[in-house]
Amino acid sequence: MEREALLEYIRPRMPEKRYIHTIGVMETAILLAEKYGVDTKKAEIAAILHDMAKYEEVEGMRAIVREQGLDTRLLPWGSEILHGPIAAYRAEFELGIKDEAILNAMRYHTTGRAGMSRLEQIIYIADMIEPNRKFPGVEPLRQIAEEDLQKAMKACIHHSILFLVTAELPIYPLSIECYNDYLGEEL
Ligand code: DGI
Ligand code: FE
Ligand code: FE
Ligand code: FE
């Protein structure tokens, strides 16, 4: 599917601010894909669609988890954790996107996971550092993303875990598995 058609699909599903964020993720992901030799078209598609389920009703998302046999660990969590896996589900069954690499990049864009592909890393990182993101500490993350994809992913997941702990927020198991993976040491 072409960029314009995908953008038209997502636009009515989110507020203007989220749409602008999505454009930022798309542009950042394409630049990172070019830099690191990853398929730019796949990066574009995953980026455009990554937050398309963010504003859906949580009970509807849980129903999909149950009916479609998605990971049952998702069930107690809110839309922050559900929207990636649900976006992947809708991309596959409503838009006919069958490419698992693209679907996984969407599916794991919030939590990360152990053993991420470079496309998954690019979407995770682009989501965090796109130009509209303003949080303290974003600038060093942007700098590292220019230099080394693996190091950038490590820095991003570290930042996320630190943020969650500091805010006393619960941490989804995949986020922890992702963090441990990037420490790169024996457990
Ligand atoms: O959808 P976005 O806002 O663009 O970004 P996102 O999908 O990466 O993250 C959505 C929110 O989820 C953000 O506020 C950070 C939060 N988050 C990420 N990992 C975890 C998490 N929240 C909890 N409770 N646990 C996690 O493991
Ligand atoms: Fe998201
Ligand atoms: Fe993110
Ligand atoms: Fe996002």
From TrEMBL:
Residues 18-132 form the HD domain. It catalyses: P(1),P(4)-bis(5'-adenosyl) tetraphosphate + H2O = 2 ADP + 2 H(+). One of its GO terms (molecular function) is nucleotide binding. Keywords: Hydrolase, Iron, Metal-binding, Nucleotide-binding. Signal peptide: none annotated. NCBIfam families: bis(5'-nucleosyl)-tetraphosphatase (symmetrical) YqeK. This is bis(5'-nucleosyl)-tetraphosphatase (symmetrical). The lineage of its organism: Bacteria, Bacillati, Bacillota, Bacilli, Bacillales.
